[in-house]
Amino acid sequence: SDGSIRLHQMTSEYPLMEWSDSTNGQPIIALQWALTRPAVFFVLDASSNIYIWDLLENDLLPVAKQTFPSENVVTMTLLGEPEKTNGLLGIALAKESGQIDIQYVKKKWAVP
């Protein structure tokens, strides 16, 4: 609820990494690991911002941020086929109006 993200290992109660205030205090609505690239995850906050984290490129801050100011995004899910190396990764965004928007992610964040 405060925008903090914690990366845990299953064998420990203490986080391996913690990013406090990663969304400028906005609650996190959804977080999902990329299906095709294990070091990348996506975060959706309550202000309809999507943050892309690539831990191989930068483990302190997100590498990109995309804002959707026109309408509230209420949830997201990632689309892709982990067994394929074609680098196709999409994000399905559900908007408050009921519309679904599908966007493709740049290959540098999708290729294994």
UniProtKB/TrEMBL annotation:
List the record's Gene Ontology CC terms alphabetically: cilium; cytoplasmic dynein complex
Classification via InterPro entries = DYNC2I1, WD40_repeat_dom_sf
Q: Name one GO molecular function term.
A: dynein light chain binding
Q: Which GO terms fall under biological process for this protein?
A: intraciliary transport
Its recorded name reads WDR60 protein
* Organism listed in the record: Pedionomus torquatus
